[in-house]
Every structure is written in C-alpha cells, then in structure tokens.
Amino acid sequence: MKPRKPTLEKVNPKFGSSIFVKKGTSQDIGTTPFWHFHPEIELVYVDKGKGKRHIGNHLSYFDNSQLILIGSNLPHYGFTDRLTQHGSEVLVQFKPEFLGNYFFDTPEMTSINALFRRSKNGILFKPQTKRSVGKKIQKLNEVEGFERVILLLKILYKLSKAKDYEILNADGFVFETEMQDSAKINIVYKHINNNFQNHISLDEIADKVSMTVPAFCRYFKKSTGKTFTKLVNEYRIVHATKLLSESQMSITDVAFECGFNNFSHFNKLFKEFTGKSASRYRGELKQMVK
Q1: What whole-number distance in Å separates Cα of residue 225 and Cα of residue 231?
Q2: Separation of alpha carbons 67 and 125, rounded Å
Q3: Chain mean position to CA 139
Q4: Beta pairing partners, 196
Q5: What phi, psi does 146 have (nearest 5°)?
Q6: Which contiguous run of DSSP H or E holds residue 203?
Q7: Digits of tens for pLDDT over the chain (290 positions)?
C-alpha cells in the first residue's frame, strides 16, 4: 500500500471538556494509525508495546514502553496497533491555549511554556521520568473536569522539570503557525497536502486564501517563519523519508514521486534537511533491527 501523505486530523474532546483523553488496549478495535498532524499538543504513554515511531523526519524503534510529547502541527504516526497483549496506550490531546491565550505566559508557567516550545520537535522521555509520570497519565482517563485539568498541569510541570529526555526531530519539520490564523493556514496546508507532488504557484495558493501574492508572502512568513517554497519543500522531504523507509522505490523515483523535477536539487535539499544523503538515510534504516 502506498504510504499516505500527512492528513490534518480534527480532534474533538467530548462535550464540556477542552482535553481529549483516550485509553486503548491491544484488544480494542480502532482505526489504523496514519500519518497526520493537528494543532493540538499530544502526550502519548504506552506502558507495554513495541514498534516503530515516526515523528517529523525522525524514525526509530521502541521496545516495551514509551512516553512522548508531540508539539502542535508536527506530523507523526499513531502507535496503538503496536501494543503487546497486555499493553495499553493513553492518548492526551489539548490545544496550547486551552486555558486561555496568555495563561502559559505567566511567570508561574515559564517552565511549561518552555516545554511546549521544545515539544514542537517531539520529546522522548527516558525511563526515570516515564516511571514517575506514567501512572499519573493513566489516571487522566479516570478523572474529569477540574480534576483532569489540575492533574494535567501537574504532569506537564513534572515533564517540564525532567532532565532525561531526547529531542526527536531536531532542526526538523513542523507546521508552525499562530493559532488565531489556523483556519486560513489550514486551507494552505490542505492544498499542499493534496497538491505537493505538482508545482504550486504563489498565484494559485494566494488565490486560495483570497490574498494578493505580496500580502500572502508577508503573512505566511510572519505566521510560519518560512517562505511558502521552503515549507512545500520540507513537506516533500518529509514524505520522501516516509517512502524511503516503507517502500522499495528507487531514490530517483522517490524524488519524482515527491514533486521534485530535478534529482540533484532533491539530493541537495534532502541533505540540508536531514543531515545526510538519501542513500545514506535509507542505508541506516536498514541497519535498524529491533
């Protein structure tokens, strides 16, 4: 099956709640994990399981358990289908401003605010923090309302003070945008998602959001910190890492499949983005055996 492009996922907490919490087990019948992104921050705790994690341009394998914090709009895969027989996963999703636009800008929230910034590249927490926080995360599924908010804040504070963690997608790919512009930005992302294999002109994308080209360029650079061309190329490279890891396509075919008409340009951008050539990237993947 051809790997999917990142899909914008809509997260819908139950009525009366701003935090989505779901606990799943290996016996649950759920949707197949897919390559997606969303504006919500995501906390994932797997107590028993093994498999592959793909977050941004990072690909690695986990065994037994994992605790990950994934920031806003960072493309990633789900993990639930990789649980062992007695394993469970708790998935927690919430918008960065779920307590108001400025709540985490207060002095008391400084460390959590810094945690949110780090999470934009994906954070993997090591055993010590995983053991101390894991049971608290599982309890989120048992409480609601005010108690859930307070417990989540305690968990986030604990994570913000942890020293045993690894940044997974360092200098990698993320859809970074101001939340108030999410509707307009989502139009742009959806258009990229559906058309990145073809040339997307500035006239075309500016028209999608009813802006002139100069106004769109200023708006997009201010919202994302990148030019539109740079983001499209990053999107293509992330898709290329997916194809290189999960298909038998030649590297040349991968380049053209991802929308690059010039193979040398693909090689140059791939190395700039991942720090290695496409052939080396695929070769190192083949060495991963867990």
Answers
A1: 10
A2: 6
A3: 24
A4: none
A5: -55, -45
A6: helix 202-208
A7: 344 456 667 777 776 789 999 988 766 645 566 677 888 999 999 888 776 777 877 767 777 789 999 998 888 876 644 555 567 889 999 999 999 989 999 999 999 999 999 998 899 999 999 999 999 999 999 999 999 999 999 999 999 999 999 998 765 655 554 444 556 777 887 888 889 899 999 999 999 999 999 999 998 887 766 789 988 988 888 888 888 887 889 999 999 999 999 999 999 999 988 888 999 888 887 765 44
**pTM > 0.70:** no
Q: What is the signed CA dihedral for 170, 173, 177, 181, rounded to 10 degrees?
A: -160
Return the DSSP state at 109.
Answer: G
Q: What is the dihedral of CA 237, 240, 245, 247, to 10 degrees?
A: 180
The DSSP code for 104 is: G
CA distance 288 to 131: 26
The DSSP secondary-structure symbol of 171 reads: T
CA 13 to CA 237: how far, in whole Å? 32
Q: Which 8-state DSSP code applies to residue 196?
A: T
Contact (Cβ atoms closer than 8 angstroms) between residue 69 and residue 92: no
How far apart are alpha carbons 117 and 96 in whole angstroms? Answer: 10
Calpha distance 117→121 (Å, rounded) = 8
Residue 209, classified by CB atoms within 10 Å of its CB into exposed (0-12), middle (13-18) or buried (19+), is middle
Give me the sheet containing 58-70, strands edge to edge: 19-25, 88-94, 41-55, 58-70, 123-125, 165-167
User: CA 104, 72, 275, 164 torsion: positive or negative?
Assistant: positive
CA dist 40 and 74 (Å) reads 10
